[in-house]
Amino acid sequence: MTAACRRPDVVVTGIGLVTPAGIGRERTWERVCSGRPTAMDDPELEGLPAGFSCRVPAFDPAVLVPGVQHWRIDRCTLLALAAAREAVGDAGLTPETWDGDRVAVVMGSAAGGVATLADQQDRLRERGPGLVSPLALPMFLPNMAAGHIAVDLRARGPNLHTGTACASGATAIGIAVDLLRSGACDIVLAGGADAMVTRLCSAAFARMGALSRRSEEPAAASRPFDADRDGFVLAEGAGVLVLERAPDAAARRVRRYATLAGHGASADAHHQTAPHPKGVGAELALRRALSDADASPVEVDHVNAHGTSTQLNDRVEGAVIERFLTGRPSVTSTKGVTGHTMGAAGAIEAALTALTVFHATTPPTANLQHPLDDAELDLVSGTARTGKVSLAVSDSFGFGGQNAVLAFRPV
What we know:
The chain has helices spanning 3-6, 25-34, 61-64, 75-90, 114-127, 136-140, 144-153, 168-182, 199-208, 246-252, 280-292, 311-324, 335-338, 345-359, and strands at residues 10-19, 22-23, 40-41, 52-53, 103-108, 159-162, 187-195, 236-245, 258-267, 302-304, 330-332, 361-362, 378-379, 385-386, 392-398, 402-409. By secondary structure, the protein is of the alpha/beta class. The strands form three sheets. Strands 1, 2, 5, 6, 7, 8, 9, 10, 11, 13, 15 and 16 form a twelve-stranded mixed beta sheet that branches. Strands 3-4 form a two-stranded antiparallel sheet. The protein has a two-stranded antiparallel sheet with strand order 12-14. A hairpin with a 3-residue loop joins strand 15 (392-398) and strand 16. The protein starts with a helix and ends with a strand. 58% of the residues are buried. Belongs to the thiolase-like superfamily. Beta-ketoacyl-ACP synthases family. Residues 7-410 form the Ketosynthase family 3 (KS3) domain. This is Beta-ketoacyl-[acyl-carrier-protein] synthase family protein.
């Protein structure tokens, strides 16, 4: 698709973040740029193979999401609501001043209200069907984050949920771009949320061999692209972007963080959990994102990598970056700080990539002490790196061979 066919450009005008690195865009950005990990012992996971996690600190729905009945809403949706409210305010918008018919919501999640599901299953088994909550399904269903955001902000445009595992948030943002380009809406709130730090999810990931077992030193457990990595750290969070067509944002004279220049998606068609050993699907998604952005691989000067800290992902992704992005871009994985927020990861990392472009600052990869020796990558470690970023990509991959890549340019 040519630039002429896809114009006007889509820009990021608002960012909302609720992550283990902090509540709010500014706190998250500061912690990520500092390179200070957030993983710590988790009493709720005590006795499990990985008894630590990355949780959102001091998340109080009564303070952060006032005006809603918190007991009726799963934590995943509450995180999404808090991020959406911040993003809308950051964009200088309010439900009172926009045309709600022209506002869309697209949210991704890997599991939706999985904590509610586990709790209600326990009730059914231990106390019988009469004590299963009538709110169990509305709290659990994965689309409810998008639904609650629409209710809360009176957004009556297209309302969609994406479920592409750990690529869900990035997939949602890609769909949002297409909605804006098609003229189906004027504003989209797009992102992802997940709250999978539960005993069931932790035990299941541990049984797969996906989690770090570095229990003696949790803060050092998430170490993307490090030779000593042994798995990811389970995390929770939410990220929401406000996206608009560039002329509309310019007319409002609002701050624009970055241009979302292109997106691409693909399937590995290889295995239910393992990435394709040669990264065929990941490279295809990169090719499509760059084609959509009318850019060549050599132009990419920064990659916010999926970088999970697992053996397979980091090796395969590193090889794809080295092979395909021939300009030797800087590479970072913010999961070293935040852990793996699952379906929220693609949205949180898209927001951080937009902030990297906006601030001309690249966050470091935490805990990176012994870089991979099978890929020649320009890995950012230790401290943040300053310097203009002209074209950045954010990689997101998920179970089922799901791949989504987003490309960002300065405005």
